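Dear H.,

Thanks for agreeing to be a second pair of eyes. The structure we're designing against is below in token form, covering all 174 positions.
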């Protein structure tokens, strides 16, 4: 709207004045004006690209997940990191691993799906676990999105919120 009300009329006036007077200063003002305007549009597009939240599709959920120790540090977070991880495979299966560091002690299996993208901007993960299941997986996760990544947060009756991020498990160097 501001383009129609202000920028185009100002550009036309400057063009007419430049055409009549043939003064270089008017042409320079018009040129700098449009270069500045295009620069602002480009800067806005770059800022939006860097800050807009990632729109997730079902394929984005596939991968390995580990406990995100960046949210809560300390012994409890390290223990959760060493004892829980999961993966979502391309056949829409989820495998939740109860581990002792690199040794898998128990596997809980289930299936995943996503919601209809027309309801939300980003698809949301739905998990249907085989019963009995682990207390971390009794409800669907909440997804927190950023420009380049996302976290899945599961509510656990024992731990409250457990944050997972995509990544491969590696031993902690304490």
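And this is the sequence the design step returned. I haven't edited it by hand at all.
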């Amino acid at each position: 709207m501001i383009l129609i009300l202000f920028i185009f009329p100002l550009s036309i006036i400057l063009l007419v004045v430049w055409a009549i007077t043939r003064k270089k200063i008017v042409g320079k003002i018009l040129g700098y004006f449009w270069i500045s305007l295009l620069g602002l549009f480009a800067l806005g597009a770059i800022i939006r690209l860097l800050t807009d939240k990632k729109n997730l599709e079902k394929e984005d959920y596939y991968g390995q997940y580990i406990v995100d120790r960046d949210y809560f540090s300390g012994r409890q977070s390290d223990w959760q990191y060493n004892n829980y991880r999961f993966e979502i495979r391309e056949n829409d299966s989820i495998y939740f691993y109860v581990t002792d560091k690199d040794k898998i002690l128990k596997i809980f299996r289930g299936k995943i799906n996503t919601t209809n993208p027309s309801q939300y901007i980003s698809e949301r993960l739905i998990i249907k676990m085989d019963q009995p299941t682990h207390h971390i997986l009794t409800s669907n996760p909440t997804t927190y999105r950023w420009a380049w990544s996302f976290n899945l947060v599961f509510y656990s009756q024992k731990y409250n919120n457990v944050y997972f991020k995509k990544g491969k498990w590696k031993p902690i160097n304490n």
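Two observations from my side: The first strand starts at residue 63 and ends at 67. The chain has a mean pLDDT of 90.

Warmly,
E.
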